[in-house]
Amino acid sequence: MNKEVVRTEAAPAPFQGAPYSQAIKANGFVFVSGQLSLRPGDKELSAGDIGSQTEQVFANLRAILEAAGTSLDNLVKTTVFLQRLEDFAGMNEVYSKHVGERPPARSTVEVAKLPSGALVEIEAIALV
């Protein structure tokens, strides 16, 4: 099995220099680390409500998947972490616009806290 690190400047670098990769390609899959509403090069999260934060998360996911040679159309599983489950409808409205006619399997959980006060974080697995 080969393991290839995926890195693009079109998405944020690992959060505060933490020891993880944006994504890893292995055995026909790409495993994308959890993405926040951080724009590439910025040190602070994008301001805004759950909808705007989810849009930025998908921009980051799209950039990383494209760098890995795939796309949002090839998502097979996502995990959504919400600061407040009350934001589910707002997140889901944006989410549904990005996952297409054949949405991936998904888990959505409320968590006690996300980095830098983020409202949403999404990790993903896609076919390459």
Question: How would you characterize the overall build of this protein?
Answer:
The chain is an alpha+beta fold. It has a single domain (3-127), classed as 60s Ribosomal Protein L30, Chain: A. It is built from two helices and six strands; from the N terminus they run E-E-E-H-E-H-E-E. The chain has a six-stranded mixed sheet, with helices on one face. The longest helix is centred in the middle third of the chain and has 18 residues, at 50-67. It is globular.
> Care to count the β-strands?
6
Tally the structural domains: 1
Query: Mean pLDDT score, rounded?
Result: 95
Q: What is the CATH topology?
A: 60s Ribosomal Protein L30, Chain: A
The rounded distance between the terminal residues' Cα atoms is: 15 Å
If strands are numbered along the chain, what order do they take across the biggest sheet?
1-2-3-6-4-5
Which architecture does the CATH hierarchy give at level 2? 2-Layer Sandwich
Q: Percent range for helical residues? A: 10-25%
**In one word, what is the shape?**
globular
Beta-strand share of residues: 25-35%
| CATH class descriptor | Alpha Beta
CATH level 4 superfamily: RutC-like
Low-pLDDT parts are: none
Total helical elements: 2
What are the secondary-structure elements, in order, as H or E? EEEHEHEE
What structural category do the secondary elements indicate?
Answer: alpha+beta
* Rg over C-alpha atoms, rounded to the nearest angstrom: 14 Å
Tell me about the largest β-sheet.
6 strands, mixed
